[in-house]
Amino acid sequence: MAPGAPHLVVRQVSKRFGAAHVLDRVDLTIARGELVTLLGPSGCGKTTLLRLIAGLESPDAGSVELAGRDITRVPPHRRNVGVVFQSYALFPHLTVYGNVAFGLKSRGRSRGEIDAAVGRALSLVHLEHLGARRIAALSGGQQQRVALARAIAVEPDVLLFDEALSALDRKLREEMQVELRRLLREVGATAIFVTHDQDEALTMSDRVAVMFAGRIEQVDEPRIVYARPATLFTLGFVGLSTRVSGIVAGSNNGRVEVDTAVGRLSAIGNFLIGSPVVVAVRPEHVRAAPETAGNCVAGRVRSIVFHGSNSLVEVDAGAATTLLAQIPNDVSAPPRVGDEIRLCWPVAETFAFPMPEAGA
After folding, report:
1. Residue 260 pLDDT > 70
2. What is the pLDDT at residue 38?
3. What pLDDT shows up at residue 4?
4. What integer pLDDT is reported at residue 133 of this predicted model?
5. Which DSSP string corresponds to 121-134?
6. Rounded to an integer, what is the distance from CA 61 to the centroid of its chain?
7. Where are the alpha helices (DSSP H) in 71-165?
8. Nearest to 162 by CA among 185, 189, 195
9. Cα 117 vs. chain centroid, distance in angstroms?
10. Among 143, 312, 322, 331, which is most buried by a count of CB atoms within 10 Å?
11. 88 or 230: which leads in pLDDT
């Protein structure tokens, strides 16, 4: 979805813990009704950013605005923010009803309002028949739904999910991704989801914010983050890719010619001649082909990993270079380990990135 009017605005937010600079001048704007995922490795700052929005941490610099109000120094209980934690943080001594009603009671709602809100929230997560059940008697998936119902019941301005599905097994997690996406759309919720799982981020999000070392590397629609990564880090963190180092030998109209250890490759990019770069392509664009159009490299098949309708083929191209190709399994003569093979891919799907500095 295209972003509309700003609903949550994080502006130039920085945060240190001792000598560690966890967030470095982060900017992020989220529209009402949008689901944005903060994606990145452990320690990149995504959970700290979520806690700053929730009011569980305070920034050293910058501001946070929600629904037109500056909440930078507003305490958590006055922010109207719903949080679903990885551990769910449910009260074991209360029933399902009691857990969902907790936030409503603390806000001084009447019994009639509480009953109506709890009933509505439990119906949305399909647990209306379990209101009297104790938390200990629920499965992991049911507990996750209770935590979600509790957050929804208070009608927050924004819902925050901190690795909320990571405790579930893979099959249930995938089911809950679809269900949660449906539910958030149904209630029109604005939501921020923190995860290190690339598939989860691409499946659920309106936009993905890829984070690294306390900064946002790229924020865009999932398909753009995957197909047109803005940085080498985003390319490597979101999906598989072949990467070959080289030196720019020619540059013209947004296209560069790069001399590499496996020959000259053409790529999309703007660099000065002599610049050290990394040339990259996604494996689904690489095919075993006899033609000479585009970029072509010969090598020997090192390994083949079956993935249902296709296989991921790893090819040793010499000079310490490995190419990845996604080959359909319905081809008449599939490659075998040890085969010599020629791989080709289009220049339009080949991108050049600045060579990272040593130690970066």
Report:
1. yes
2. 96
3. 62
4. 92
5. HHHHTT-GGGTTSB
6. 25
7. 96-106, 111-124, 140-153
8. 195
9. 31
10. 143
11. 230
User: Which residues, including other chains, have CB under 8 Å from residue 63's CB and lie 6 or more apart?
Assistant: 9, 10, 11, 12, 13, 70, 72
Return the CATH fold of 240-354.
OB fold (Dihydrolipoamide Acetyltransferase, E2P) (2.40.50)
Query: Please, which pLDDT band fits residue 95 given cuts at 50, 70 and 90?
Result: very high
Q: Considering the chain, tell me which residue range(s) the CATH 3.40.50.300 domain(s) occupy.
A: 6-236
CB hemisphere CA count around 323 (13 angstroms): 30
How far is the C-alpha of 13 from the C-alpha of 9, rounded, in Å?
A: 10
Q: What's the chain's Rg over C-alpha atoms?
A: 24
User: What is 6-236's CATH topology?
Assistant: Rossmann fold (3.40.50)
d(CA 265, CA 258): 5
Token pair 């647990």 is found at 127
Strands 215-220 and 69-70: unpaired
| pLDDT tier, 360 (very low <50, low <70, confident <90, very high otherwise) | low
Which residue type occupies 87?
A: S
Question: Region 86-102: what's the mean pLDDT?
Answer: 87
More confident residue, 172 or 356: 356
CA atoms within 13 A on the CB side of 348: 1
* Nearest-angstrom CA–CA distance, 120 and 152: 9
DSSP string, 275-293: -EEEEEE-GGG-EE-S--S
Look-up of token digits 């982060």: 26
Per DSSP, the three-state class of 187 is helix
Instruction: Give the pLDDT confidence of 277-315 residue by residue, as tens digits.
Output: 999 999 999 988 776 678 999 999 999 999 888 899 999
E strand or H helix at 49: helix 46-54
Give this prediction's pTM: 0.87
* Integer Cα distance of 94 and 104 in angstroms: 14
Alpha carbons 118 and 121: distance in angstroms, whole number = 5
How many CB atoms lie under 10 A from the CB of residue 291? 9
Residues 79 and 73: beta-carbon distance below 8 Å: no
**Beta strands 191-195 and 158-162, pairing class:** parallel
